[in-house]
From TrEMBL, chains A, B:
PROSITE patterns to which the protein is assigned, alphabetical: HTH_TETR_2 (PS50977)
Entry protein name: HTH tetR-type domain-containing protein
Domain HTH tetR-type residues, every copy: 14-74
InterPro entries, per the entry: Homeodomain-like_sf, HTH-type_Tx_Regulator, HTH_TetR
Top-level taxonomy: Bacteria, Bacillati, Bacillota, Bacilli, Bacillales
Amino acid sequence: MKRDWTKKTTRGAQRTLDAFTAAMLNALTGKPFEQITVNELCEKSNYPRATFYNYFDDKYDLLHYIWHCLNRQIRLEQYEETEPEQRLFVLFDRAYDFIEAHQGTLNRIIKHNAKESFLLFHFRVQLGDRVREMFDPNICRYRDQVPHEIIADHYCNTVLLVLEWRFLHGNDGSKEDTLRYLEHLLGALNAKSLHEF
Amino acid sequence: MKRDWTKKTTRGAQRTLDAFTAAMLNALTGKPFEQITVNELCEKSNYPRATFYNYFDDKYDLLHYIWHCLNRQIRLEQYEETEPEQRLFVLFDRAYDFIEAHQGTLNRIIKHNAKESFLLFHFRVQLGDRVREMFDPNICRYRDQVPHEIIADHYCNTVLLVLEWRFLHGNDGSKEDTLRYLEHLLGALNAKSLHEF
DNA sequence: TAAATATTTGGACACTTGTCAAGATCTCAA
DNA sequence: TTGAGATCTTGACAAGTGTCCAAATATTTA
């Protein structure tokens, strides 16, 4: 991470970042991530190597940046208005729609990267950070039973589990079915939290 | 993976494998995984680079092998005698004791590798495969409600979540406390499965 | 506008990576 | 004990990686 991605970039810098992003996504539809070289990305995007290293530490860093940008597209801001146990379903809802909207690209990528399960690992990590914010200990009520970090991670894991089952492992099924699995897995916690209100 | 790790190795090969394993574990106690080079491992173990590549594709592959060996040390064989929902607690029990026994080495490693969360990623994957076997669909009873792969992964995630919270995130606490968190997170599923008997 | 300042570019460098074919060394049956 | 076959070891090679610096270009400031 050579620079702060949350800061605003100049128009020129954004053009460069977009070009490398496009080059990587394009390369990923044709071969596994491990086989992609920085040289190749520079050829595809018509930028010299030094420019690449101006922005990124290495190709993993670029991947990291791409996940960051995609993650930002999942809008969760309105969660503050909802009750804690509802927030999880807001997250599920937005993430489901987002992934469904990008299913074409996703399928092309995992076709060559089915075994590189770590590809999506940092996406998980980033989403996990956001989920942890959503279940701030000051707001949630499970404190006395289980540490809130465990609850937040468990929520994050479970949402991602059903989403990965649906979209990554080639399982068909409606959004409602997937939601039902999520509700079933979290049945106990939600029943308890409802009871506490 | 250059060769089948489940096959028996010759004495000479085993000596070489052990040397590289020791070199990696030793290196990990001094610096982050990313900064370790194959050259360094060869210097430490007094083997030429080509020998390393004889056994492993790269340093990730060696790490993979090390997790495989460690994983084999967690003995779960007797699970067939127990009821499905008890197996999870057998897994928890064995894994907890195993990690606790290696806590010294583990702490030295994560001291330099706290941010390299993917280090343990493949360990998770491998343990997940074993957990999935434990909850074979022919034996488990949740088929009609949630696909059994989801249940198995959810069990695996949850056990690993509480173990990581306990040992990786620097939280103290008794085995009983940790077990209580696990039971709480899985409360609904177990209540249901008990009911079905 | 023009000078001052910052960013981008290209090439050179030292180093790491993964492969290969040839040579050394083990192993086991005769 | 011996020697054919299998396995293990090795140095050299081509390609990739990440850094550095000075020249070229862009951006900001006066």
